[in-house]
Amino acid sequence: MRFVADFIGALREAGLQVSPAESLDALKAIKLLGLESRQTSKTVLALTLVKRQADQVIYEELFDLYFAGVGKTKASNKELNKGSNKEADKSESESSDNPLETKNNPHSSQADMSDGEGMQTSPSSSLGQALGKNKDMSLAITQAAIDEKLSSIVLFTQKNYFAYKIMQRLGDEALSAEIRSQANSLEHKNSLEHKRKQRELVKARARLLDQVKDYVEQQYGIFAQHKGLKYREEYLQQAKLSQLDRIDYKLMQRLVQRAARKLASQHSRKRLTRKRGQLDVRKTIAANAAFDGALFHTRWKATRIERPKIVAICDVSGSVSRVARFLLLFLYSMQDVMPKVRSFIFASEMIEVTELFKQQGIELALEEIMKRWGGLSTDYGKALAGFQSQALAGIDKKTTVIMLGDARNNQGDGRTDIWEKVFRQSKRVLWLNPEQRNSWDSGDSIMSEYSPWCSSVEPCRNLKDIERIFSRLLKHS
Amino acid sequence: MFILKQQISVIIKHQEKIASPEIIQSRYEDLGYICSHSVATSIYLACHLQKPILIEGPPGVGKTELAKVTATYLNAPLIRMQCYEGLDESKALYEWKYGKQLLYTQVLKEQLGDVLRGARGLDESIARLHDFGDIFYSQEFLEPRPLLQALQSEDGAVLLIDEIDKADQEFEAFLLELLSDYQVSIPEIGTVKAVSTPIVMLTSNNTRELGDALKRRCLHLYIPFPDAALENRILATQVEGLDSQLREQIVALIGKLRDMPLKKSPAVSETIDWARALLLLNVEELDSHWVKETLNLLLKFQDDIELVEPEIKALLKGLR
Asked: A Pfam family in this protein (chain A) (predicted)?
């Protein structure tokens, strides 16, 4: 069972949310069906532990890594075992029958190690004895790795260090000393028998070292790979969106979606609040049945408060386009709580992209938008005029307008009059500026011309900002 | 083997039926439902661990069918609840029989005289009233809806909560008590526990992400489109009299269509419909004429049809 617990630990490291209750389910299920069949265990653990389709890939990768280790030691044991004596065979088969179970009592292997003492011409170090008997060392290695806290491995540079530490714990010092002393002792130098023995010992040590290294490698794959990812993700949360590398886009998209999902689930329950509306006849009769049908209490139909209606306008020129990309992604990942989103993008023309997102899926559509319009020069005046004709009529007192732009208008007319109309018609206008506060109004930025007609103007530079802004937006709606 | 202490009656009655995933798999096959090993394992675990199963997958892969077959297999009634937006507890769990309640108060009023006869003072009258017993809110006047029916079912039932993703999130939260403890709370009566634990299956088409709390309480089964071999077997059982060569061609073609960037990939149910149609039309071999004529059975969007039509020849060439 320790195997399953370790495996769950590895899954958690990789970012899957496995609750204790689910772990218990997995253990119960494994008890029912056993771990003998790899396919069955894979199915069983997937059924109980993996609840999101997106996590399936990580799960399979980890599972294969984990079981590959188990399978390998099994196979190598069998190979080593060929031609060894019957007694060893027996003990071998006992231990390899179910390598997972035996992990529970690693001490038994240590006890076994010492009983080789009686053997004549056997090596004097206990590790040497164990190797001499062709014992299965994988249990001992596992135990040593646990003692050395191998699961805390983070960087690949630590691999050799851990391999060394594990060897030490297995008793490598004594073994090496023995090999050295045998090589130096004159008395044995001429004896063929001893030479052969010594060579065997050296070989066995090399084999063990390989095995340990393999094991460390495998554990690194399980525990560390995703830890690295975690560090990277933490960094990305704070990173400036406008300076993000292309390489990080994929990872960032995942982060954005995760953050959006979290926010969506937090707020979805606040959505429904009751308000007095129409009389609910059925419920009223039910409530007053006790009074002989005389209607004392009235029951009202619950009316839903409108989910926030959002119009998003994104500048996709130059450096703003990168921020726009993630803002839009965030917006669309929250469709559960904000289903009514209209989105517009502009450089000089205002273009509605709501339909495009619906048809192509957000990621593809974003690629296309950035390719076609990203990087053009901006004309706020022209764009706002376009917005007026396309969407102004649809803006009412329930609408929140979100504008993402740096307000750098290349000296043109900003048409603030249109923005004023938008402000007066809507419930609220948020202006998100991807630049920091002190560079607003510098150069060709005309932020201060727009800001009187905004409910709030805020810098929006990293994922944390986006998350904060939307969290507030949902709270107030 | 590890055996759970509180076995449910469905299982006691059918212990041998659910002895192992392999048995389930082969018996389901006899019933005409070909399933993969992981599906059978999930049913096995659901019975033994008494856990609901959350079934996800593209439409038409047999999610609802699985519940139907399970009910048939275990000789248990299938109680189905279709979810939709706005579904609330009075439609899912219980409702009071208002009409009867009103009649009851009328009857009560007539009896009131008898009950209170000879009572001295208001205190005694009220004391007598209290003794009279109140059945206004009681089982008598309770109209059970699907969820309550499933809990009250004597021999256990298979409860299918279909398309849970269509219901509101509030309803999802309301289901949690049922899913984890097999009980529901009715304010006027108290907690109603399951007479015998039903087997609960929830299906979802993933129109929205379900809550973590719900997922945590369920086994999670994802049914993908079947692979060619499995689909071939499904066709063999569902459409009798289909030539085996034609069958292979159909399966291969469908597999290729699923690899294309379609709005809606053809599902298993559509494969079956198509095969039946071809059989009816006495088609012996797939050719571009017949495929073109019957394509609308497979593809439900005009865009998809337009995308596939020019490719038909190339697709068919690959089959031979």
From this structure: VWA_CoxE
**Chain A contact probe: residue of B23, B50, B170, B216 with most A CBs at under 10 A:** B216
Q: For residue B131, which phi and psi values (nearest 5 degrees)? A: -65, -25
The answer to whether residues B130 and B122 touch, using CB atoms and an 8 Å cutoff, is: no
Cα separation, A257 vs A260, in Å, equals: 5
DSSP reduced 3-state for B76: coil
Report CA torsion sign: B157, B158, B164, B169.
positive
What tens digit of pLDDT does each residue of A330-377 get? 777 776 566 778 888 888 788 888 888 777 777 778 788 877 877 677
> Is there a contact between A209 and A171 (Cβ–Cβ < 8 Å)?
no
| Sequence ranges of the domains in chain A | 1-69, 127-227, 271-305, 308-475
| DSSP letter for each residue of B88-153 | -HHHHTEEE-HHHHHHHHHHHHHHHHHHHTT--HHHHHHHHHHHH---SSSGGGEEE-HHHHHHH-
Q: How many CA atoms lie within 13 A of A363 on its CB side?
A: 8
Residue A345 — φ and ψ, nearest 5°? -125, 155
Going through A120-191 in order, the beta strands assigned E by DSSP cover none
Using the CB atoms, write b or e for A124-137: b if 16+ within 10 Å. Answer: ebbbbbbbbbbbbb
Flag if B219 and A48 touch (Cβ within 8 Å).
yes
Task: State whether B220 and A47 contact (CB < 8 Å).
Answer: yes
Q: Residue B22's closest chain A neighbor by CA?
A: A40
Q: Identify the CA nearest to B171 among candidates B144, B195, B141, B146.
A: B146
pLDDT in tens, B41-100: 999 999 888 899 999 988 888 888 999 999 999 888 999 999 987 787 778 888 888 888
CB atoms within 10 A of CB A34: 15
- Cβ atoms of B275 and B266 closer than 8 Å: no
> Does the structure show a pLDDT above 70 at A308?
no
Q: Is the dihedral of CA A460, A463, A464, A469 positive or negative?
A: positive
Q: Which CATH superfamily groups domain A308-475?
A: von Willebrand factor, type A domain (3.40.50.410)
- 3-class secondary-structure state, position B60: coil
* CA quadruple B285, B289, B292, B293: dihedral, nearest 10: -90
Q: Would the pLDDT of B288 be above 80?
A: yes
Mean per-residue pLDDT for A243-257?
A: 69
Is B49 in Cβ contact with A32 (below 8 Å)? yes
Q: Which residue of B25, B38, B66 is the best one to mutate when testing the A interface, meaning the one whose CB has the most A CBs within 10 A?
A: B38
CA B229 to chain CA centroid, Å, is: 26
Confidence of residue A277 (pLDDT cuts 50, 70, 90): low
- Least confident range from A374-383, B162-171, B264-273: namely A374-383
pLDDT tens string B2-13: 444 444 445 556
What is the dotted CATH code of the domain comprising B15-84+155-222? 3.40.50.300
CA distances from A371 to A318, A332, B8 (A): 12, 20, 60
Give the Cα separation of A158 and B254 in Å (integer).
50
The complex's ipTM? 0.79
A437 by Cβ neighbours in 10 Å (0-12 / 13-18 / 19+) ranks as exposed
Average pLDDT, chain A: 73
